Amino acid sequence: MSDVERFENQPENCPGTQSENAGKVSACAKCPNQQLCSSGTLKGTNSGMHEIQERLKDVKHKILVLSGKGGVGKSTLTCLLSRAFSLKNAEEHVAVLDIDICGPSQPRILGVLGEQVHQSGSGWSPVYVEDNLSVMSIGFLLSNPDDAIIWRGPKKNGIIKQFLSEVDWGKLNYLLIDTPPGTSDEHLSVTTYLAKAGLTGAIIITTPEEVALLDVRKEIDFCRKVNVKILGVIENMSLFVCPNCKTESKIFSTSGVKQMCEDLKVPFLGSLPVDPLLAKCCDQGIDYLRERSNSPIVKALDKIIEGIEKQCTI
């Protein structure tokens, strides 16, 4: 039985995701995964597992970057983390896999918008941002970046499987997987595919307000239900530091991220302040870490990287 099937409220006589009756029998009526099973999204996830394991055998750490809701800076943090890992050690190779199928933003954020993916005998070649930093995204496969991707679950599942099994990642120290907000098709697919390929864990991004934390608690619950280790939670946009007078101002009235982590017994990796220049760098594909090497964000990010490295070894 796969990790996806181990939900605590799974029907006792579940036919299983591989069955022809998946999602169609009376036992499935109250299951939260009925629609996914009946649509065929989860069926066949075991096929191709060996290819994925072989392709990723030289990837040391495979890390999901998750968020409970949109707009908390998940894709921006994925970019910052990837650049920070690659800058810390030029000998270590880092890659980003963008599986936010309907909203792929990594090509623009990493400054490689418009680049083409090439195919060889060893598979698809990712697009290189730096000598030791590469990225793969469906954004590279679109004829027009403004094209809408209107896909149902099975097709999303298929492209994620292709990215994991057919991209020639080579030897990597870190593969950061940028996911869409929530806990849906893409998350179920990637956690199932990576279950036997050595998924290191997940980093969860949030902003300080309680509305965001409500969804983060669901994300933590999701990780526990599918047996994904939580490497830690990062609080983004914790406060604003004036670039002129250096005065700190809280944007949100409350911040219960650290307390939530203590209550739910998950690691708190740290907080990042707001810098308007960061958004500008992301829009233009500029490396913020080099542009603002002395900023409070970069200093806070250094400690977060140390925390992630520590959690990866536990």
TrEMBL record:
Record bears the keyword Acyltransferase: no
Protein name: Cytosolic Fe-S cluster assembly factor NUBP1 homolog
Protein source organism: Agrilus planipennis (Emerald ash borer)
GO cellular component labels: cytosol
Binding locations of [4Fe-4S] cluster 1: 14, 28, 31, 37
Function: Component of the cytosolic iron-sulfur (Fe/S) protein assembly (CIA) machinery. Required for maturation of extramitochondrial Fe-S proteins. The NUBP1-NUBP2 heterotetramer forms a Fe-S scaffold complex, mediating the de novo assembly of an Fe-S cluster and its transfer to target apoproteins.
Record's keyword terms, sorted: 4Fe-4S, ATP-binding, Cytoplasm, Iron, Iron-sulfur, Metal-binding, Nucleotide-binding
Biased composition (Polar residues): 10-20
Name of the coding gene: LOC108737540
Residues noted as binding ATP in the record, renumbered to the chain: 68-75
InterPro entries documented for this protein: Mrp/NBP35_ATP-bd, NUBP1/Nbp35, P-loop_NTPase, YlxH/NBP35
Binding positions ([4Fe-4S] cluster 2): 242, 245
